[in-house]
Amino acid sequence: MKLKFSTKEKKCRLCFSKKIEKILDLGNQPLANNLVKEKNIKQKKFPLKIFFCKVCKAVQLSETVNPNILFKKYFWTTSTSSTAKKFSIKFYKEIIDLKNNEKPLVVEIASNDGTFLVPFQNKGYEVIGVDPAKNISKIANKKKIPTINSFFDLKTSNIIKNNYRKADIIFARNVIAHVKNIHELIKASSNLISKNGIFAVEFHYAKKILDDLQYDSIYHEHLYYYSIKSLNNLFKKHSFKLFDAFESPISGGALVLIFSKEIKKKTKRLQKLEKVEMNSKVNTLNKWKKFSKEVQDHSNKFKKEIERMNNKYGKIVAYGASARSSTILNYARLGNNQLEFIADKNPLKNNLFTPGTKIKIVNSKRFLQKLRNYKIILLLAWNFKDEILKDLKKNRFKGKVILPLPKKITTKSL
To answer: pTM score, two decimals?
Structure first.
């Protein structure tokens, strides 16, 4: 049977309405995590467009790429980021305070290398991870974090329920944006969760995307760009009740919403977040149309600024070969003619080339040892700027750093 690469969506994936309207077109782009071993390998490109559902207010991609192509091999490991590792402790404390069973069973959907399960495991709680990437699941299991290599669906939830028991805590971090058949994932969670269990869902917050002009977060893995309202509308369909929320530093600004099957009183912090969202008009078409115009203006300015730097310094170097960098570089049509290389601390990416732009990725440790050779660095992983700037200062970098986002392009001297 011939593998179908992608499907064009003609209706909302969440409420199935056909009342949708295109917001932004970022052109045809390669898959953001499709790093290649050789520069001249041809890569398939897919339309990168988002639309707004006028019924449930959800923002989503117009094209769905086959998940087997996207997720069977993965290059991001959560433990790469010191920000993520630090937040995993705070996340654990927030969740365990809400669910203080003596011995809860904790299940993470799309658990990656198990970084966020470690704090639970260290306190003696039973944990299970589920992740579709074979290479990443192997890493987690080697670290003694029990991980099932699979997509999370009804079948997988039954395997866990039958071999262990119902889960007291389920969490899904930065994954609900990735799943076309999101209804199946929520049904599977409903099947697995205990009567008084909680389901914590982290997602890159649409309000932060709008406020900070984070269009680099739009790529083929991210099918949805949720607000509190649009996500709550979805979960209500499966009898989940939203009762709490807290902020996350991940992805340049995320939220964690807490659901249960029981009716619970909404916390004050959730009520405050909902009020701010309503007042900022996150769930309106006009707000997203304004965003689209600002994105086009920003990309033009970004291209001109890099070309100005090239005229002054020649090819410049960059830091952070993230999936986000793929969108911003491909949309601005910047590549190996403008950037000499991109340094990255993830060893899985070393000596590979970026999709579409064909820029070599080099080992960040070696790069940091030669910092004095460079006068300017483009910080593509700007959402991790605090930890990266700390590394640059520690290694005595004395040049300039270009931050493409949030909101506008800025240059910082170190």
So the answer is: 0.89
CATH 3.40.50.720 fits 300-413, yes or no: yes
Contact 48, 28 (CB under 8 A): yes
Single-letter code of the amino acid located at 361: I
Q: Which helix (H) or strand (E) segment is 217 a member of?
A: none
Report DSSP letters for 114-173, one per residue. Answer: STTTHHHHHTT-EEEEEES-HHHHHHHHHTT--EEES--SHHHHHHHHHHT--EEEEEEE
List the structure tokens of 82: 């010191």
Q: What is the pLDDT of residue 3?
A: 42
Residue 197 to residue 149: CA distance in whole angstroms? 24
Exposure letters 47-77 (e unless 16+ CB within 10 A, then b): ebbbbbbeebbbbbbbbbbebebbbeebbbb
Residue 332, token pair as written in the block: 């601005």
- Tell me, rounded to whole angstroms, the distance of Cα 197 from its chain centroid: 25
60: left (phi over 0), alpha (psi -120 to 50) or beta: beta
Token code pair at residue 111: 């658990």
* Contact in structure between 208 and 383 (CB atoms under 8 Å): no
Tell me which amino acid residue 74 is. Y
> Could you tell me how many residues make up the chain?
414
- Placement of tokens 């179908």 in the chain: 4
Q: How much is the pLDDT for 2?
A: 41
Tokens of 34: 């499709």
403 bridge partner residues: 410
> What is the C-alpha to C-alpha distance for residues 107 and 154, in angstroms, rounded to an integer?
14
Assigned CATH class of 78-283: alpha beta
Instruction: Kindly list the domain boundaries of the chain, sorted by start residue.
Output: 6-61, 78-283, 300-413
- The residues of the chain scoring below 50 in pLDDT are 1-3
- Cis preceding-peptide flag for 119 (omega within 30 of 0): no
Closest C-alpha to 50, from 29, 76, 75: 29
Cross-strand partners of 128: 107
Q: What angle do CA 123, 93, 384 make, to 5 degrees?
A: 110
What is the structure's pLDDT at 251? 79
